[in-house]
Design goal:
There is one protein chain. This protein has helices at 21-38, 51-81, 134-147, 252-257, 263-294, 304-314, 320-325, 327-350, 357-370, 375-384, 386-408, 418-458, 462-476, and strands spanning 2-9, 12-19, 91-96, 103-110, 126-131, 151-153, 165-173, 183-190, 212-218, 232-245, 412-417. By secondary structure, the protein is of the alpha+beta class. Among the domains are: 2-110, Trigger factor ribosome-binding domain (Alpha-Beta Plaits, 2-Layer Sandwich); 151-247, Chitinase A, domain 3 (Roll), CATH 3.10.50. The strands form 3 sheets. Strands 6, 7, 8, 9 and 10 form a 5-stranded antiparallel sheet that branches. A hairpin with a 6-residue loop joins strand 3 (91-96) and strand 4. Helix 9 (357-370) packs antiparallel against helix 10 (375-384). The chain is elongated, with a radius of gyration of 37 Å.
Length: 477
Amino acid sequence: MKVEVQSKKGLRTTLSVIVDKKIIQNKLDERLNELQKEVSLKGFRPGKVPPAVIKSQFGKSIYGEVVDKILRETSTKAIEEKKIKVAGQPKIDLKTFGEGKDLNYELQVDSLPDIIIQPLDKYKATEYKVKIEDKVINEKLKELSAQNKQFEDKKDNEEAKIGDQVVFDYSATVNGNKFEGSEGKGVQLELGKDLFLKGFDKQLIGVKKDDEKTVEAVLPENFPEKELANKAAKFNCKISNVKHPEDVKIDDNFAKNLGAKDLKDLKILISKQIDDEYKNSLDQLAKNQILKEIEKINVNEVPENLIEEEVKILSQGMEEEEIKKNKTKFIKTAKTRIKTGLILNAFGEQNKIQVTEQEIQAEVQKQLRMMPGQEKMVMDFYQKNPSAVASLRGTVYEEKILNLIKEKAKPNKKEISKEEAEKILKEAHKQSHDHDHEKEEKKKETKKIAKTKSEDKKKPSAKASKSKPVAKKVSKK
């Protein structure tokens, strides 16, 4: 095999590769001998079909199979020989080929740029820890107690009021006719929450145990029987009980009912839950700070083939006209993404970061927990889509790199209150929204200016109309 550098421009190298015809013939003969043991043809005993007969019947496909294998093997060796760190998939352009001929092809390879990595402690990030004050925990305990109310029976002659629970059976009609779902048994309704039908609760205020009450209400727009949606219905309600809420005592027993060991343990769990609610978002802010620092690293050139692949991903599912219209924006976004990815990859290689199968499975399990009831669908998706698993691996890899940088950078640790956390996140969201809005407004303004200039070119200006006589005078001279 002969390998020569045909041309080199930036990160793109074109290699000329020539594979001797004798090598190709030897590979063809080897493959024919293999097939002789496998092929069964009418008129020949198994394993006794002459190579010449196999060649006459399957020659073209065998040659294609052999050449394909040779291209894979020799292109890999050529890249290794020239010590090129490949970015993306190389392109092969066949020049000469055919049985009895040398195989000559060009191999276009884009290489990874050299990236100089700064020491990790140069990066800046703020690591927030949310301090959960007692008043916040107490508010949460009150909220939990309200959600877990216990009711006890009122006296038979006591009327129902807002906050009480009314237990009843009902039979409903629309225009005097019953319908599917028109009956209910043992319905429990906390008055004032308006959870059944709009205005239903208010009509039960004042009822007592064993009362009968006709309640009128409008069936909802999304009622299963579409012809009855938004129709007025009458509910004949038989009140079986009226209960009032007990005062909930927030103590160890209350905590145990919620699955905690005791009240102290419940407070710890609440504190951790609130902290976790903010942790992911605040950690993302720290990682965004690091990514902004990373973007400052100079990368002279980005591989063209990676840009092309990224633009395809960004424009997936779009019409051809829309792709052309947004191509400049796609290329810019693609370059930024690839540049960041290349730098992070350099960090990963430098620090020998690996992603294990256990870490991939842990990430899948995390996604399963986030989608209760859809576990099978998520598992099937990853089992049937190797590319999705590869993408997941990339996400875990990037996460590990950013965590390492954050750790080594010795971040500025800051303890903040829940209110401060909300303020920081709100401000970050506002800045992101304002930035997107500003970009959109600039785009609109640019279009407006371009449109105005275009219209001005079409219209003759005052100066243009006055300049005509001057031009005539000059021509006369």
